[in-house]
Amino acid sequence: MSEGAATIRTRKFMTNRLLCRKQMIVDVLHPGKATIPKTEVREKLAKMYKTTPDVIFCFGFRTKFGGGKTSGFGLIYDSLDFAKKFEPKYRLQRHGLVEIKKTGRKQRKERKNRQKKVRGTKKAKVGAGKKDNLYMCISKWDNGDNIVYRSKAVMAMLDSKLEMVDAGSWTVVFIM
């Protein structure tokens, strides 16, 4: 078979003005060939609808039993801005339009357990764990020289209230 043997047909075409897109079911006929990559489907849809491939999102393709025909869903947005606004993040990541940072397993579990403690919309506000508001800086004075032992952010001393406790030759500074 030749390389251009795949035929693309669309059905159930609909213009969705609320989401600023055209949506349709895409049928790919590819007799005697393996499933066509989504990038090729996007390029052919771009030619059919006179647009660029970056605003076309194809997903949900299933090959019929016996092969030769694949059906899926296609979305063509009016502009890239609308696509970024309405498309789910995982599909934008597939296109390389957005970078999703993956958090560690332990952080995800801790966040999940913190969310269990609140109800409703407050679950979305439960982000990273709260940081301690108490920082401590311990200084030892020897013959006028200052040797500083720091824990956490001593830079916070500049903006915060200071509470100093003198313990002999040691000075303990609590930053509230």
Automatic annotation (TrEMBL):
Pfam families: Ribosomal_S24e
Keyword Cell inner membrane: no
The keyword Ribosomal protein is annotated on this UniProt entry: yes
Gene3D superfamilies: 3.30.70.3370
Annotated PROSITE patterns: RIBOSOMAL_S24E
Domain of life, source organism: Eukaryota
Any one GO biological process: translation
Annotated keywords: Ribonucleoprotein, Ribosomal protein
Family of this protein: Belongs to the eukaryotic ribosomal protein eS24 family.
Protein name stated in the entry: 40S ribosomal protein S24
Organism per entry: Magallana gigas
Lineage, opening ranks: Eukaryota, Metazoa, Spiralia, Lophotrochozoa, Mollusca
